[in-house]
Amino acid sequence: MIHVYEDHFLTIESDVEKSILIYTWKESTAEMTLDDLMVRAKRILGEVLQRKVRFIIGADTDFKFPLAPEIQEELNKSILSAVNSSDVEKFAHVYSSEIIAQMSVEQFFDENVHKTYEDKYFDSLSDAIKWCI
To answer: What is the structure's pLDDT at 93?
Structure first.
């Protein structure tokens, strides 16, 4: 696994041999603005497209930014629609520790009705990795 990107809110790692990208949100997302979120979401998408990965794992355990319905819709239009046209086959989601954030993240991914990949929710990163590879 190679370290691809890191900042105050997000870490991205990739394994070229296994064609997997893991992004991990940090607890500091509680301080994030909408612009901060959009910049990081586009960064994740850019890495997915550039690396042509087949598997994505979103480690949302520490994601604290509330995803209001209008934000979910914007992310769905700008990010998930591009993932639909990528090489991604599986997208694993590791649940948030906060119930409300967990529900909004799950709702966000469930609203992608045109998805071209399989997705599944997990409570551990190791289980998500096993499912992907």
So the answer is: 87
Query: Are 103 and 97 within 8 A, CB to CB?
Result: no
Dump the DSSP string for 67-97. --HHHHHHHIIIIIHHHHTSS--EEEEEPPS
The stretch 5-10 carries a mean pLDDT of 98
Edge-to-edge strand list for the sheet holding 2-6:
2-6, 10-15, 20-25, 55-59, 90-94, 118-122
Q: Which residue has the higher pLDDT, 124 or 5?
A: 5
> Strand ranges (DSSP E) for 1-133?
2-6, 10-15, 20-25, 55-59, 90-94, 118-122
Rounded Cα–Cα distance for residues 32 and 8 (Å): 9
Count Cβ atoms below 10 Å from residue 10 Cβ, excluding itself: 22
CATH number, domain 2-132, options 3.10.620, 2.160.20, 3.30.750, 3.30.9: 3.30.750
